[in-house]
Hints:
Blueprint: H1 2-14, E1 28-29, H2 30-42, H3 47-59, H4 76-88, H5 94-107, H6 112-121, H7 130-139, H8 163-166, H9 175-188, H10 194-214, H11 225-237, H12 244-256, E2 263-264, H13 270-280, H14 287-299, H15 328-340, H16 347-360, H17 384-397, H18 403-423, H19 446-454, H20 462-473, H21 491-501, H22 506-519, E3 532-534, E4 538-540, H23 545-563
Antiparallel strand pairs: 1-2, 3-4
Helix pairs in contact: 1-23, 2-3, 2-4, 2-11, 4-5, 4-7, 5-6, 9-10, 9-11, 11-12, 13-15, 13-23, 15-16, 15-17, 16-17, 16-18, 17-18, 17-19, 19-20, 19-21, 21-22, 21-23, 22-23
Amino acid sequence: xxxxxxxxxxxxxxxxxxxxxxxxxxxxxxxxxxxxxxxxxxxxxxxxxxxxxxxxxxxxxxxxxxxxxxxxxxxxxxxxxxxxxxxxxxxxxxxxxxxxxxxxxxxxxxxxxxxxxxxxxxxxxxxxxxxxxxxxxxxxxxxxxxxxxxxxxxxxxxxxxxxxxxxxxxxxxxxxxxxxxxxxxxxxxxxxxxxxxxxxxxxxxxxxxxxxxxxxxxxxxxxxxxxxxxxxxxxxxxxxxxxxxxxxxxxxxxxxxxxxxxxxxxxxxxxxxxxxxxxxxxxxxxxxxxxxxxxxxxxxxxxxxxxxxxxxxxxxxxxxxxxxxxxxxxxxxxxxxxxxxxxxxxxxxxxxxxxxxxxxxxxxxxxxxxxxxxxxxxxxxxxxxxxxxxxxxxxxxxxxxxxxxxxxxxxxxxxxxxxxxxxxxxxxxxxxxxxxxxxxxxxxxxxxxxxxxxxxxxxxxxxxxxxxxxxxxxxxxxxxxxxxxxxxxxxxxxxxxxxxxxxxxxxxxxxxxxxxxxxxxxxxxxxxxxxxxxxxxxxxxxxxxxxxxxxxxxxxxxxxxxxx
Length: 564
């Protein structure tokens, strides 16, 4: 085991960039590539779209569809967007015919309403992604505008503080899509309702100013290729050819293309993978490097109100790039990383981060991702694994913060623990928000969620004991774990389960360690698996996840053995 841990540690340390932190590498995405191709094609470009279409042709699955990554199974959203990209580029041929056949088999028909219903059913009441996909199909002339829901873009003219009360049909981070897609629908298929038509006419200019104000200087909304592409194609199709928002979107797409003509779903997760790596390397990060990483991490804390979400100062985003937005998971990760680095003199920094998390806590006691009280759509509601992450961050810093904040942490911890107890499934598992497994029921990943929550609980608590029993029962015969019971083992999910069980169930953890040693070829081989869930059920894999998760698992197990 020591040989494997040393190899993993050396490899993870070698992944740092010249500035001393980690950047990682997100997988290419067929969905991102298709949307970028469409936006650039509508803007009159030819070179990048041609490379994108060639990449899509090379990566089409044998069944005729596309998944979100080259390792993913085909899904209706990505396949519909790729199909549309070839249509808009006027390149319909064998590739498009195979996609049509796959879509017809999945939806039952290519009749517009039936196809639209099949796409919408994937997302339920959340229109964050279904409406953009239908908008693309309308731009490709695959469906009529009459069946594309009109997003109420006029609501974006209201004060930002009102948004949580307006019950928008999209999640908090999708405001740019709400505005841009609302505009193109209004321009190409205006409502017959005279009152709605008048209101939209009066607020059009104001909402475009909002879009301009919240766009980061590099043009990439949330650093996300799909969101930025949806905005660009909508603004262009709505006739705003000279819009500075459109220009900046196109510049972002031009600068973020990967070698080979594809795009990832996001530029990078630098802050996230750095904090995960720091915590995975606890005790193994050279002392001379800690100060450099600490200074970089301190610079990533937001010191002003964020224009995109209105988030107050104190949080961290997933990236150090301008399109990032402060969120709970990354703020908790940063606080834990600073504690691991021994940055105990930075109490003022920690107090700001802790206060930011405390102010985010929902009435149910849980912690959401971005905004407090926005609503019940999936990516805005309280999350079990994110709540557990906040609990760990609070506990790490509570003894060192001021007495008032200590009292707030105690009260918030009690509420968070109640939330976790009430949200635990009857079988003992918890389900995460931002991670899943394509082959598990409902694309969920209770192995990830349960493992993450267990790390925040006392092993003696009844909730922890039920969770431990569930996680142990979900272990595969090969000693590893997948996203759920009877799902093929992966390095990521096996590592997460081992990390959670090392202190309480050493026998099961040891079987997992043996599986990791075998699967990683003693630490030399860490192929990734698509377990990442991005906005709107969009899959990704990150090259560093199996490496850093496995490093953390073997380190925790070694420490638990030494403590016995």
